[in-house]
Amino acid sequence: MSSTESAFGRLFQQLIELDVIKIDTEPLDARIERRLKQFWENTSCPRCGHHSIVTWETTDRIWCRDCDFKPTYTYGTPFHEKHLTCGEILLAFTLYADTLLSINQIAPLLDRAYKTVHTVIREVEAAVQRGFPAVWKHLNQIIDGPTQVDESGRVCSGYKGQEPPRNSRSRGGSSRSGRSRWRGRHGDQLTLVAACRDSLRVIRGHRGIDYQGDLEPVIQEAKDLSQPLGEVWTDGLQAYREMDRTHRTVIHKERYVSPDGVHINQAECLFSIIQPWLRKFRGLSKQGLEQAAHTFGIVRSLTLAGGSVETAVECLVIGSFRSST
Ligand SMILES: [Zn+2]
């Protein structure tokens, strides 16, 4: 069994098996349903393009007065035909994005197959990513100060067919060397590039540390989300010399804060908290790792900006409709 055990959540999993945890997503189901219907009333019909959609509180169907199209209110969204309620879908995404639980642990909690939950989480994740910029813009907060940019070493999301390090004390070995030895082939590796400004966290997986291809796009994304971009603070990495922006550096070999107060602590802190979260995935592909890193930055930004479940619903609903049109 040891090969399928992960670092966190074993006791929690037992509680699920003992049927201790009851899930009641009805209030959240109703909230999401209302928001989706509200969105339908303000959008054009996917069939005829007219602004003629009518909804009712008492039925799942929405209706286009022009072309008589009568789909359910989840039509064209990640909530459609998923064998999970809207609230359960948001719950699955929240447990995935905001805890160290893996999909292997979330699926039994919702009493659904791994594949069902995995598919829905990936679709919701993509919708949240599409919806985030619009929601972020309307959070009405002042994003101020310098933008700290940093790049990690090569990271992966743990090991495929992961076997946790054995407790070597029981085998008489030195506990130090035994603890950190993981087995199995690791997932694809990428460099993480982060740009942090105030409560905003942009984090992306990239192939390397080339300025134009890897670092600049992340700085640009931070700029798009927090116009105008302030001063950029980085470490002394050679690649940043190509930067055509107001820019100051801290040389880490010498100190962590430059004499004039330049540092990249926020970015370093972000790397330290994303690593344990990424490890729960057990060997993601490049694409999976890119998508996960992006999500982490979004959820972290919403948390730091004081966002609520409501904000997450908003990202999801707006992103859902962006995909369907
Ligand atoms: Zn129509």
TrEMBL record:
InterPro entries, A to Z: Tnp_ISXO2-like
Residue ranges of domain ISXO2-like transposase in the record: 142-287
Region (Disordered): 151-184
Top-level taxon of the source organism: Archaea
Entries under NCBIfam families matching the protein: transpos_IS1595
Protein name: IS1595 family transposase
Source species of the chain: Halorubrum miltondacostae
Lineage: Archaea, Methanobacteriati, Methanobacteriota, Stenosarchaea group, Halobacteria
